[in-house]
Structure formats: C-alpha cells, structure tokens
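Postdoc handover notes: sequence design on the structure in folder B. Input tokens:
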C-alpha cells in the first residue's frame, strides 16, 4: 500500500503494486515458462536520458523573421497563456511589437525566446510540419538563446527580479512539454524559490503599487504554483509549499484589462478577502457568496484560471495528505475525516463553477457532459474536467487499492446483496460517508462505544463508495478524449504538458478495476460478474466490457502521444510492458 512519499513516478509505482497483486492470480501459469522478460523492477522512465544539445554559435540577440515570430507568439498566447498566465498579455504584447525597432533588455529577450520555443513546439504538433516548417531544431535554438541570455553560469550571481522568475517558469514549462520531467523539477524549484525570495506569494499592501501590477504579480505566483504542483504530482514527491507559504488570494475572475470599472471594487480589502478566498478555507456562507459572484462574471479565460487555481490548492492538500509519511500512523477515524473533508472541498468547488465552465450534467452530478455553449471555452472546460476527475483519483486510489488488497485472490463463494447505484454521484457518496463516520455532527465514538462489527460495516460501506467514485472518475477522464487519437486535438484542447500523466493515472485505475471485479465476482459465483464492482455494490454503468473498452482507448491515445517526444515513447513502452505483465491475470486479450 502507498504510505508516505513515493520513491518514483506514481504510475510506475502503482503498476508495480498492481502487478504484484495480479501475480497472486497467476499460480496456474507454467513454472517453466521460458520467456525472457525484463524484470518489472527495472521498468521506469526518466527524462534524463534525452540529450539537450548546446549550440556554441547561436546569436543570443538575433530575432527570427517577423512572420515566423508572429506565428509562434500567437500560438503561445492562444494555447498556453490561458492555462498559465506567466506574462501580462497586454503589456508583453505591446513590448513584443516594439522589439523589432528598439533593442529589448537582455532578460526580456530571454523571456521572448522561451515563448518562441514553446510556441514552436505547439506549432509543430498542430501543423505536423516538423518544427513549424522552419527546421527541426528551431525550439532548441530558441532555448539555447534563452540560456545564453539568462540561464547561464551567472544565474546565481545576479539579483532576482520578476523577469527572472518568468524565465525560470517558462524554462520549466518547456522542459515538461519536452518530456524532461526531472530537469523541469529542478527548474521549477528554482522558479519557486525565486518567487518566494521576491515575496510575490504575499499580497502587497503598498498603496503606491497599482492594482493591475499587484494582480500581474499574483497571477505569476499562481502560475509558478500550478507548474510546481503539476510536477510534484507527476514525480511523486511531496511539495515544499505548505499553507503558511501562501498568503495571497485567488486571481480575480476578470480579464487582464484591470482598468475596467467592475475590477475597481475588488481592490477593496474587505470584499476582496471574501470574494477571492480559497474554497479550502471558506465557510458555507462564503462559498455561497463566492458562487453567486462567479455566476455574475462575464465568461473569460480569467474565470477559468481562477477556478483552476482554486482546484489546484485543494489537490495540493490531497497530495500532501496521501503522501505524508505520518499518514500510515494515523488512526483510521482520522483518515476517514480527512477523506470526507477533502471530498467535501471538491464537491464545493464543483458546485461553485459558473455555467459556462460546467463540464458535468449539473452541480450535483459528476456525470461528464462537455457539450454546450459557449464553444470558445471548450478547452478551458476540458482542463477543469481533467483536473477535477484526477483530483478524485489521487484522493481515492490508495483506499481503492487497500479495498482490493483485502479481497482474497481465491475467495470462497458467499452471499452478497445487490443494490443499484447507477444514479449515485460523488456528492451523494460524500454525504452518505459523513453519516457513516459521524454521530449527530460529533466524531465517531471510541472503540468501546461502538461494536467492531458496526465499525467494520461503516468502513466497508465507505470504501465501496470510494471504489465507485474512483472508477467513475477514471472513466470520465478517458471519456473526455475523442474515439480516434488526434495529436492536433490534444494540442489545442488539453494541457499538453500533463495529458500523458492524466491518461496513465486513469488507466491504472481501470486496470485495478478489472482486477477488483475478478476478485469480487468470485465472492458470488451465481451472479453475473460483468457489472459487479465489489462489496455487494453494483453500478450498471461500469461493466467489465466498458472498462476494457476504455483501457483500449486509453492505450491508443498513449501510443499516439508517444510520438511527441522520446520521453513519451519510453514511458509508453515501459507502461505497455507493465500492463502486459498484468493482462494474463486480468483475463482479457490484447
């Protein structure tokens, strides 16, 4: 079971655990199987194997042709900036248009070259014409220019400023997109420390600083936070950012033109505190006020960014909770309360979403529904949906695995009752779970006050709800993607830097669901096992056939993503090998 900090990439760790569990069901395999296979402990991947060349003759102050530069610049602003508002769009765009007439400062030019490098990568994937049709090494040339300008051996000898934070954050983002997760982790940590050094994680009280400048600093901080959060979720490490590090507030849900009249009232500290408080720390009344306020906001990328940041703070706490080294030492009732509190925070965040951001049937339902207007915010809804369902998976996967590990590999048939749960939602599961672990609002009585059989029944019912919600979330992640893999679609509509991680995480849960179905169905040989989820709980919407279909779809997408960079290819190869070790025990053919 997962306990504390993972020693490696989470998906690999979980797949190895799943392989060990599935191995208990392979006793019927021939002992003299002569097939030579790579030991499962050697299967992993790391971005460190990919070489990043350094070019000695790159002119750091050279600018590309204006039409090429415009293409890369607009690609970045259209597809990357809405998700990570590292730059102030209006200010930087005005500076960009002047750069061809007045020589720009060194650090600003480093920022621009990193924008070109990222835009070049995106353009290559969208057009499928090499590196934007202008040479296969264009993005590396831009990266080398940025390194020569501001990421060289003098980086620790120069004072840190906001542009240096932008440079380090953009460099980390480029490395993540390129599959260099280990290098990206180092660079993101540097950006985080630089941001903390400048204090942009603290809301400035200086009245001389214009509110627009304050908000630009605020969005830069949250972009650093989002990128660091993404990387620690990918490499299985506990973040160094605790609750005390961050005293700033959520980004305002308005466009970047801070001179607009509706922005003026946000600068007032009192409503500002209530309006932009994180869901984690809001009271019920504050959450209702916040939801009403978001509903009145004009649809924009800034509203989606506001919601993404709010969700990331919840997921960040989930990661720290499930990865804490103290988690295995806690009493089960404390673990139950943590699950419920974090699940309630996710429910509250989901219920607060304004209509144009909604990706489910209703605020009370988790069932995926991405159709609807306005269509121009479809990519924002996809990002919110992927983040939300993945947060559910991160929270519930350790407990789902615990539930599965408790089932015997070859159980004796016994009676179990069937109850339909097709219409249940995670919110309803959360409410039911609260009733299981509370008594009229008070904590569960001590062990002496409640019989072991009742406690065990409550724990089993709570885990049953966790199993269903975790599987539904994994199904929803895969359902987001079209039936036929398409690099252009995934580049335009998803966060390209994290989509592989989301798919692999969901696939792990689906494979665990198959193993769990096999073990659970053996508990009652007289029942149809195709829709059995476990513990006497059924969901007609989650069948073995559906899970196998989603696994096949996910692997098609992972194979397509493996063509983007060598790290993705290595990841798919390792993951495919791990899965094929588990496949015989899971009783489906590939």
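Designed sequence:
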């Amino acid at each position: 079971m997962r306990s504390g900090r993972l020693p490696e990439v989470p998906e690999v760790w979980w797949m190895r655990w799943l392989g060990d569990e599935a191995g208990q069901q392979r006793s019927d395999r021939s002992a003299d199987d002569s097939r030579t296979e790579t030991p499962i402990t050697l299967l992993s991947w790391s971005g460190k194997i990919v070489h990043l060349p350094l070019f000695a003759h790159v002119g750091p102050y050279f600018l590309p042709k204006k039409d090429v530069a415009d293409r890369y610049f607009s690609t970045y602003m259209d597809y990357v900036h809405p998700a990570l508002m590292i730059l102030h769009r209006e200010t930087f765009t005005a500076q960009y248009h002047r750069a061809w007439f007045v020589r720009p400062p060194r650090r600003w030019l480093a920022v621009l070259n990193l924008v070109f490098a990222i835009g070049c990568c995106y353009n290559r994937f969208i057009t499928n014409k090499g590196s934007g049709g202008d040479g296969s090494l264009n993005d590396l040339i831009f990266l080398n220019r940025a390194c020569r300008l501001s990421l060289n051996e003098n980086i620790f000898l120069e004072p840190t400023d906001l542009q240096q934070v932008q440079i380090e954050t953009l460099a980390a983002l480029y490395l993540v997109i390129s599959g260099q997760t280990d290098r990206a982790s180092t660079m993101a940590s540097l950006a985080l420390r630089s941001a903390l050094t400048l204090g942009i994680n603290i809301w400035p009280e200086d009245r001389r600083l214009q509110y627009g400048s304050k908000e630009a600093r605020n969005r830069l901080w949250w972009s650093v936070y989002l990128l660091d959060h993404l990387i620690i979720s990918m490499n299985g490490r506990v973040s160094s950012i605790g609750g005390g590090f961050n005293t700033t507030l959520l980004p305002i849900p308005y466009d970047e033109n801070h001179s607009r009249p509706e922005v003026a009232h946000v600068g007032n500290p009192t409503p500002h505190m209530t309006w932009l408080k994180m869901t984690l720390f809001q009271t019920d009344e504050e959450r209702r006020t916040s939801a009403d306020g978001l509903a009145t906001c004009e649809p924009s990328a800034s509203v989606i960014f506001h919601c993404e940041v709010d969700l990331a703070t919840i997921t960040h706490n989930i990661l720290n909770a499930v990865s804490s080294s103290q988690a295995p030492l806690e009493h089960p009732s404390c673990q139950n309360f943590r699950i419920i509190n974090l699940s309630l925070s996710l429910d509250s965040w989901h219920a607060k979403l304004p209509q144009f951001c909604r990706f489910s049937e209703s605020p009370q339902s988790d069932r995926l529904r991405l159709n609807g207007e306005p269509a121009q915010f479809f990519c924002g809804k996809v990002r919110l949906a992927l983040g939300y369902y993945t947060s559910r998976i991160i929270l519930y996967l350790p407990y789902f695995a615990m539930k599965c590990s408790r089932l015997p590999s070859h159980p004796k048939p016994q009676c179990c009752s069937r109850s339909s749960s097709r219409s249940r939602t995670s919110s309803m599961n959360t409410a039911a779970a609260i009733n299981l672990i509370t008594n009229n609002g008070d904590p569960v009585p001590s062990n002496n006050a409640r019989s072991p059989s009742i406690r065990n029944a409550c724990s089993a019912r709570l885990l049953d709800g966790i199993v269903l919600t975790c599987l539904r979330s994994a199904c929803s992640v895969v359902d987001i993607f079209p039936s036929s893999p398409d690099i252009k679609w995934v580049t335009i509509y998803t966060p390209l830097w994290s989509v592989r991680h989301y798919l692999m995480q969901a696939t792990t849960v689906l494979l665990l669901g198959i193993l769990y179905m096999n073990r659970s169905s053996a508990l009652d040989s007289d029942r149809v096992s195709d829709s059995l989820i476990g513990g006497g709980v059924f969901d007609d919407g989650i069948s073995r056939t559906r899970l196998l279909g989603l696994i096949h779809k996910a692997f098609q997408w992972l194979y397509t993503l493996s063509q983007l960079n060598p790290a993705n290819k290595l990841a798919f190869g390792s993951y495919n090998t791990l899965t094929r070790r588990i496949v015989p025990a899971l009783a489906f053919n590939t």
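Context for whoever picks this up: The two ends are 28 Å apart (CA to CA). Don't rerun without checking with the PI first.
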